[in-house]
Amino acid sequence: MNETTVCVVGNVATQPVYRESPTGPTARFRLAVTARYLDREKNVWTDGHTNFFTVWARRSLATNVAASVAVGDPLVVQGRLKVRTEQREGQGWLSADLDAAAIGHDLSRGTSAFRRSSRPETQAGVTAQPEPNWETEPASRMPEETEPRERAEQPHPDPVGVT
Length: 163
Prior knowledge:
The chain has 2 helices and 6 strands, in the order ββββαββα. The chain has helices spanning 59-68, 148-153, and strands at 5-12, 17-19, 26-39, 44-58, 74-88, 91-105.
């Protein structure tokens, strides 16, 4: 698809609104993004224009936003930009929405403690496969005096998930 993907850095302006719907959970909040520039005459940093985006999160991202995001938090949001125009009471309105793919705290302005969200329980009758062992033995651990015939007779584990 030919969509505009952007990454914006700003502060949460409104409390996230979380809703459960038949298609899955959603959360939305407003993000304030203010450009800053150095005023060379006064030698001070000055705030420029502030843009406001409505950020939409869906499914597990929405659940994590509801548990992790509060007004004033500095965030980095990456997602698809959607600009909409509409008429209200004879006036033209323009809104900028971000359909978020990823949201995180801006660690250049503070610290954060990550907590992995719990996974949903597996369905009845479906067994989870164990995590494969991806580590290989270093070459230095292979016995050098082993004859090639003896190495070939040693059992080799079947690869897991290789097609």
